[in-house]
Design brief:
Number of domains of chain A: 3
Oligomer: homooctamer
Helix content of chain A: 40-55%
Order of helices and strands of chain A: HHEEHEHEHEEEHEHHEHEHEH
Radius of gyration of chain A: 21 Å
Number of helices of chain A: 11
Structural class of chain A: alpha/beta
Shape of chain A: globular
Strand content of chain A: 15-25%
CATH architecture of the largest domain in chain A: 3-Layer(aba) Sandwich
Distance between the termini of chain A: 16 Å
Chain lengths: 253, 253, 253, 253, 253, 253, 253, 253
């Protein structure tokens, strides 16, 4: 944004832009206003990724409108998260996105297909149990959408330590590990102790009773005695996949 | 208590006791009233152990009075928990308990010495870190006071899994494991997955920030995905040692 | 696991296994990977019991697949918990488990029938009210599945103390007591004061208002002033039955 | 207050008061303004008791000023609660209240002595343990200050049920029972089930770990499955004694 | 219960009862065991009221069985609380309780009609808003079921103080006030400051956002700066009506 | 109210009113009692606005009754909040309010149309995302109902700061800003730092996981490091619009 | 800030500023960087008030440095909040602020004296009890520092309603009311119902037990059923005074 | 660890190691047992960094013993965190670490000096206010200890957005941003929206009232609507610095 401001100022200096035009540019350029939402077409340039539509609380119509404007603006790939099956079906029918595919477990849709791998190495997505799969797939598919190679290690919870340990090679070769677990959330600490790379922990709302919808796992992960562990919101597979991608692309700027 | 009631009723039937005497016995026998406290001399018979004095919130004088009445009533051994050094010193000076010893880490005093081992096997007391020692020693010494052989495994937290695993033999041979940890409390789940015996988990108030004085470890332990784990109150080393002793003496009734 | 490692190392030493075969064995042996889940066929040997399937969040198809692999691997008895009636019906129809029975109150299925009693004595399962029955039956049937004799004492809440006291003989003869209660959870303390054996407390989510889905009972039980009480997760009848069985089989190793 | 308004209006009607005087009376009469506090001299008439000074957060000087104004206004007896020993000493020295006595356990001072008993019967003040004594004495002395006969039953916690049961006669003859307990707070339910009168439960902040400064006992008491139990704030011995007195004087209006 | 024990002991003494019969009596008399529930036929004698059936979590069949046993045992009046309309309809059809009436607002059924007033005076039931009516009617009808005259003051919330003040006469003449409010729960403090009698506060789960299902009102009421206020569980209209009745009948033993 | 009391007293003085009539007036005048609700016809005079009906928990019939009495009493405009579409439809059909309009997003109905703008300036209603619209429209329409000009700035969340900054002119010219956001609620702080006027922050229950139904945003807003920010209840668009109107009309008394 | 940007752009256009100078200005002008803190000299222009120093967590030396830079920059008046007596003394000695005065109750210092009243009317600062005075004085003195006339109504808690009502005239004539209370926080609702102006509620940490350091009052105030009430952080007297001043100066832009 | 296992197995195969020696190696090698603590000399190899001593809850003597063993084992640099000034002084005197330096703000000691920069780029450490400095310095010095170049941006809180924006170039050129803030924690979202790299958010316990010791900032950061933000424990500057270093060294394996 800084460079844009400089360019703008230079244009003002040379008379290429009037003051009013510059004012307008400073305010209006970065997004397109649809009334109910504002699309950020420059985001790809600024943040290095395609735009993502958070589907929860939006109607199929709103999503189609937003996505169509993105496509019209030249966006190659779009990721729509938190999208239930009914809305996905409606979008597929009405929007005419020929190459869109929908993953019912992860509740997300990808328009424009997956890009080639561009990261430094692999991202390991590990879960404590089978109930953590929806969150894990949201993380894994998000990472793949952002150009990463993903290794899935599911159901490797710490109460059966041999399952975890049998995957030591994958864990130790990863560039980033995403540790996904509900209940007591101990997976983050165990993987944090084994891995040599950053671990992003995702607490899940899986469980009952004193798991309190993921609070138990969240606190457990925040208190991890392993260094190198940071945490995202409960069930936030997208956030974990997104940050993992940033890390896997680190040093490439 | 049931048998006592029957005996009492039989004595009433045979005229050995008047109705009033029986009423009195039903009400008065089980304890001695000191005004500020009621001592339970029959507890040893009923619950199989010596009486314990919870020292927190009692003055040295009150503790001496209670302990002296116990000694006078024939109690062989007394355990005083949550006793700070100042009170311990005062008690040692004034009470004349020749054989009392005080452990400053565990904050407890034992009068009458430790009994011989009488349990089925060993009790493993394991901690996640060195800061958990006070709680661990409260548990270990309580267990020893109740006639158990204790194996101490300290600083075997899950972020350095090799430390835990190097003690597999002791863990797998134990009759009971006491898993003591603050922060994320993952030790309980890992030990619960490795051990073949009951695991009693003790969350500790060690930590800072989102450990919330032990709540994080408590929730983590309650949500353990390992079967065979139950939990006592935060920092309750005594409770863990007590129940571990009951379990280590199981089947001996 | 330790002995297996030794055996493995000895085979490597004598040339019975190549290094790569040993590596493989160390990692792969203990479980069978179904993709969405990993079955632990060695668990019976390691932990002394049959495998249990936690049914919540698994489809009928997934459960049938897992159970069939277990049967194929020689597992004699299988316990499926947290299984609703619809899934149970589907499993019974499709899986062809001739001897499976389903308990609608406890929401669990047993394949292979109940084993004979093998414990040291009886396990008392007591509840504060009639609404605690689902949790109580989960605990009781789990304990029976693991070879224990169970005595059920239902609706003996402390607000009607005479109901509790009329069962003193059963309580005092038990090897383990499971105290199940919602609301104020006082049953654990009262039974903990009466019994001579370990008491496992199970808070239930029964109640309304400030019971906060079982938090009130949970805190109450964690703070029990009776020694010998430990606690499992809210509504965790299975966990209580499982640990009670371990205790009832203590000293039999 | 209603009758005062009527009297006032009648005086306005008959010319005994001007409108302005009536306005003034409506606003000013009920209290005396000391700047930092407003004393309510009519409270005895309205609420049937003497004024009470809540000592916490007031200086000795402020308390003396308030109390002196009360004495000057003809108040026979004054109760000062939450008063530490240092302030009590200062008040005794400077205020010249010849007949004031201070109770260090209850942290309260009574000026003007205790009145004769005027209630319907007795108020039982029962505690679960000896650490609950400060709250219990605050309740008991408040009740005595308000003209009630008090029976103290201390250290009758439910983990030693025989202690509780041995006092059945006192409990069943009471007009009100005040049940004071920390930790799991089960005493309220047990007494609520035994007594035939209202039970006022007072949770105390006694305990550690998951007692959370009295929250455990508070929730437990609010969820009591015994009918006839209501609850006051944590450690609020005064409030319990006050309401118990109202109940013990019921039907005497 | 004490007198019964004495009588029992005297019968044993005189040979009127064998020891075994006495044992049996001590244990069995107070209730009838239906398997899923235990009915307390002596409760009327012990606690002065008819038995109440808590309908939540019981089937219509279970309730009919319990109620029928009560009627068979001579119980004149039965109160069934937390009973939804469907179950109420089923009970009315199948049980043949000719005189049963059901109140849909309060969700309760009364079998046997209301008794005449027997208390010292009136019980005021006041609510902050119209949404508190279900809880208020549960309280009011419970009180009427227990022989009390009830004055209903609905929608007198403190944000419109004149509504509250216009009912000063009723408030000041009451023997007990039940203050029912959700949201900020200030009604209890305002009524507590105006009334001369005990105030029982009932927080309701009415509200949204930071009312947290009644926690806001609960805390507000527990912290009331008015003396003479005690609190029951959120939405516990029954508990408030029950205790109010005990107080309104105080001094009548 | 003060002036009314004075007028009343003067009428009593001059004989224009008897004492009883004055008593009656003091109590009865300010509202009309419908049994289930009390309407406050004088509120417009006292508080400067029309009466508002909080629709949640009221039946369509109750709302029609209340609104009809208001219309009959001369109320020009009525606002009904928290009104779902079904009830709105019923009211429109049955009540015959020709000019009523219903907003489905804001869940509110306005009878009598919007008044002309009467405030000092504009009220900016800003939201962090598109999911906050229902709360935002409740605030905006409430403000318009009370005679204010509203500027809507939707989807200007702080993670895309350029969107916020492009609206600096509107923000800096506002008389009041209403900042509405869920999740992390940072919008309030950012707007609080930019605006020169009071900012009313409304946390919304939008979000998932650790947003805890709006608690995260609520705490964030309460802790705003920007001066001039105050907060209303979670999702309380009405409250924000109401107070904003008071502020926008300040100095006009 | 908008106008400054325009001016800047115009200067660039006319050659009055180079692009680099403009860049510099855009970034550097608004504050002065002291290393450990950044002073905002333009704030007075932007937000209409003098700069305030939040004293908590700053050393006397740091505060003197900041304040001296402000004075040097021409700041007429400085308010230092959360300043304990020791630091205040040090500042007075070392800084040479001849006209500084320190208020020990409010824990704040004013340098440069109080300005004349410039608001639309009066700000009423009301408290529930005498313990709320420190917060009240912080609010009152902050308001006076910002040019407002303040009316103090202390100890007018709702449990003694006549105290509140006797101040109706002041309350009804206010431009803003600040309602300060701990414990149950009902004062905000009562004043909100009586006043015709915005009410800013300040919960205080006064109280014990279930007041939870101000949470009870905070929730109570957020849930106020009176319209026109908004809330600031617990004990945030400054924030309330600041916003009250903004409101009292509303319409004066 | 995997490679070590392979090497070990190969040595067993070739007879270079006996089975018992291999068993020993598998268990004993990775750490040195000091009794109260276990030092992990291989950690540098496994995790790429020097060992860190968490000083809280350890005596000066314990720390010296651990550090001396590390030095003896060839460790070049040691970081001791959470070390108060008194212990630091004692260590400096007794341990003879010539080159140790202690930072009183960050409460940490570095033995062996700082290494040269080895990361991909810079780590920005930004704080919301000056009170966050201790946490910020812990993060910054930890990062420097691990070979990173750090840019400090202190006191750039979002309520003065121009301060944040004036540092856009540093923020946009960073490889990692550490966003440290208490109170409302909005800094993480704002920086997350501006930066193109991973943002690690650290909530601090700075604040009062509803900041609840950092909970407000923690929740705010977990709910950040900016992608690419993850969170560590409250006040965990070390953890943030550690993970930032891992990320800044990413792609260098």
């Amino acid at each position: 944004m800084n460079h844009e401001i400089r360019t703008l100022l230079e244009q003002v200096q040379t008379g290429g832009l009037t003051v009013d035009e510059a004012m307008l540019a400073l305010k209006m350029e970065p997004y397109e206003d649809l009334g109910f939402a504002k699309i950020d077409h420059h985001r790809k340039i600024r943040n290095g990724v395609g735009e993502v539509i958070y589907g929860a609380g939006k109607t199929a119509e709103q999503i189609i409108t937003i996505a169509s404007h993105m496509v019209a603006a030249g966006q190659e790939r779009i990721l729509i998260t938190r999208l239930d099956e009914t809305k996905a079906e409606a979008i597929r029918k009405q929007a005419g996105f020929a190459d869109a595919f929908y993953d019912a477990t992860a509740q997300l849709m990808v328009v424009g297909g997956m890009p080639p791998h561009s990261g430094n190495g692999t991202i390991v997505v590990a879960t404590g149990g089978t109930s953590d799969l929806p969150v894990a797939e949201e993380a894994a598919l998000t990472a793949e959408f952002l150009g990463n190679q993903v290794v899935r290690l599911y159901d490797v919870g710490v109460a059966g330590l041999h399952r975890t340990l049998s995957h030591l090679p994958e864990i130790m070769e990863a560039e980033v590990v995403i540790a996904i677990a509900g209940m007591e959330g101990a997976l983050a600490s165990v993987l944090g102790g084994l891995a040599e790379c950053p671990v992003i922990a995702v607490p899940t709302s899986v469980g009952y009773g004193a798991s309190f919808g993921g609070i138990s796992a969240l606190l457990s992960m925040l208190n991890s005695c392993a260094s190198g562990v940071s945490v995202v919101n409960i069930d936030n597979g997208f956030g974990a996949g997104y940050q993992a991608s940033l890390i896997n692309h680190a040093g490439k700027k």
